[in-house]
Design brief:
mainly alpha
Length: about 140
């Protein structure tokens, strides 16, 4: 038996990796929609979302939002390519997403706290998942 056959990831590894990629692509979609939404598009949203979209965030917030979501997508692609650098990208994504969510919850009044908590939990899960995959040599 060759070394590669013993380190082959199970099917659930691929399922989790694809689901994580979809999750992070939704984050990219949220980033792009926030970044490119016109005033007319904002006017069609419900009042709470209009308030959130009209809120002026500092430049660093936008930057860490981008790093968090694009880092997450690249990390997921790293998992699918079985590269160990996915772990480092998930750490960067987690740090940026956590800072972003803390700022968002503290600064924007009346925000729902479920999604920000869920985002941080998913980021932590992806760090754990990629570290576990590294330890089992599924990613190299």
């Amino acid at each position: 038996m060759t070394d590669n056959s013993t380190n082959k990831p199970p099917v659930w590894f691929w399922i989790v990796s694809v689901l994580a990629l979809i999750w992070n692509l939704l984050g990219v979609g949220a980033y792009l929609s926030r970044h490119f939404m016109t005033d007319e598009m904002i006017a069609e949203l419900e009042p709470q979302l209009q308030f959130e979209m009209a809120y002026e965030h500092p430049a660093w917030y936008t930057a860490i939002f981008a790093i968090a979501v694009f880092g997450g997508v690249l990390g997921c692609l790293g998992l699918l390519l079985r590269k160990k650098w996915a772990y480092l990208l998930f750490i960067v994504s987690f740090l940026c997403a956590t800072a972003q969510q803390i700022y968002y919850v503290m600064e924007v009044e009346g925000t729902d706290k479920v999604m920000p908590i869920m985002i941080v939990i998913v980021c932590l899960f992806l760090i754990w998942f990629s570290k576990m995959a590294r330890s089992k040599t599924w990613i190299k």
